[in-house]
Automatic annotation (TrEMBL):
Domain Prolamin-like: 38-109
Listed InterPro entries: Prolamin-like (IPR008502)
Signal peptide: 1-20
Gene source species: Arabidopsis thaliana
Annotated PANTHER family: BIFUNCTIONAL INHIBITOR/LIPID-TRANSFER PROTEIN/SEED STORAGE 2S ALBUMIN SUPERFAMILY PROTEIN-RELATED, ECA1 GAMETOGENESIS FAMILY PROTEIN (DUF784)-RELATED
One Pfam family this sequence matches: Prolamin_like
Domain of life: Eukaryota
Listed name of the protein: Inhibitor/lipid-transfer protein/seed storage 2S albumin superfamily protein (DUF784)
This protein's UniProt keywords: Signal
Keyword flag Signal: yes
Length: 115
């Protein structure tokens, strides 16, 4: 239970950091707010943590999250990962993270199509 609580806490911290920097990106603020409201309701907190772990920490995703990621949509997925990868402490490896993100997307699409 403690691990789950720490994962939820980490998710909210990541989301707060990402939301704090939304105006700094090329997407206009109103569009970014709509994107956040649209994207965040399509995926469970557990799957969001799995996706973040898979892209940024060499973690693994669980089967139900493949479909959640595809339902979230490519634009949402790319935008959220790009926001996180652009942070100063991660930007040195941004290219690696974006490639992992694309590979994850392709894998999830292939799994969801075969299901």
């Amino acid at each position: 239970m403690s691990k789950f609580n720490s994962q939820i806490t980490m998710l909210f911290i990541v989301l707060a950091l990402v939301c704090a920097f939304v105006p700094a990106f090329s997407i206009e603020e109103a569009e970014a707010n709509l994107l956040w409201k649209t994207c965040l309701v399509k995926i469970t907190p557990k799957c969001a943590l799995d996706i973040i772990a898979a892209v940024f920490e060499n973690g693994t995703m669980h089967d139900p999250c493949y479909n959640d990621l595809v339902k979230e949509g490519k634009v949402c997925h790319d935008t959220l990962i790009k926001y996180i990868a652009d942070k100063p402490m991660l930007i040195a490896h941004e290219t690696e993270y974006l490639k992992k993100s694309d590979d994850l997307w392709k894998h999830c699409v292939s799994i969801s199509k075969s299901a």
